[in-house]
Amino acid sequence: MNAVTQREQRPERPDAARNRAKILAAAGEIVRARGVDGLAMADVAAAAGVGVGTLYRRFGDRSGLAYALIDGRERHFQAAFLEGPPPLGPGAPARDRVRAFLHALVDRTAEQLDLLLMAETATPSARFGGAYAAYHAHLSMLITEAAPGADAGFLADALLAPTAAPLFAHRTREGGWTTERVTSGFDELLDGLR
């Protein structure tokens, strides 16, 4: 077992939990006041009353801090599509769930776009971490149910592509697209899914 796995299994110390909460509150306030570009590790550490080393040990870098800020909203979103009410959650036909999922994902992406942009562009494969894997598995399962015989894995990637933060930011900020246009485009694609 490696050190990361051992550390993940240990419960968080109360002082570490307090520091984490202070850091995330300070970082959230800085993002609200200055935007993501104003998120400097030294400023976050000073606002939280912790050392910069503590911040780097805990989050690694700005993208790690961005992921931590994204985490609460992401957990809420995943709970909604895994166990929430239909049509986003279980209990609706698969096609309806795919549509509801994609519409909710567009809203979720728009809500934290700058943080997602920072997090997803930190490394070449940063986008394809935990949340993407969960989305892909969820969509693949629903597509398989809705269209047996379809290449569910490919279709899941194709449906997730427009919500990649760099493309979403480019289309909505520079291309003038609205979230309604993106969801409407998804609706057109899904109408062709047989």
Automatic annotation (TrEMBL):
<keyword id="KW-0238">DNA-binding</keyword>
<dbReference type="InterPro" id="IPR001647">
    <property type="entry name" value="HTH_TetR"/>
</dbReference>
<feature type="DNA-binding region" description="H-T-H motif">
    <location>
        <begin position="40"/>
        <end position="59"/>
    </location>
</feature>
<dbReference type="InterPro" id="IPR050109">
    <property type="entry name" value="HTH-type_TetR-like_transc_reg"/>
</dbReference>
<dbReference type="GO" id="GO:0003700">
    <property type="term" value="F:DNA-binding transcription factor activity"/>
</dbReference>
<protein>
    <submittedName>
        <fullName>AcrR family transcriptional regulator</fullName>
    </submittedName>
</protein>
<dbReference type="InterPro" id="IPR009057">
    <property type="entry name" value="Homeodomain-like_sf"/>
</dbReference>
<dbReference type="GO" id="GO:0000976">
    <property type="term" value="F:transcription cis-regulatory region binding"/>
</dbReference>
<feature type="domain" description="HTH tetR-type">
    <location>
        <begin position="17"/>
        <end position="77"/>
    </location>
</feature>
<dbReference type="Pfam" id="PF00440">
    <property type="entry name" value="TetR_N"/>
</dbReference>
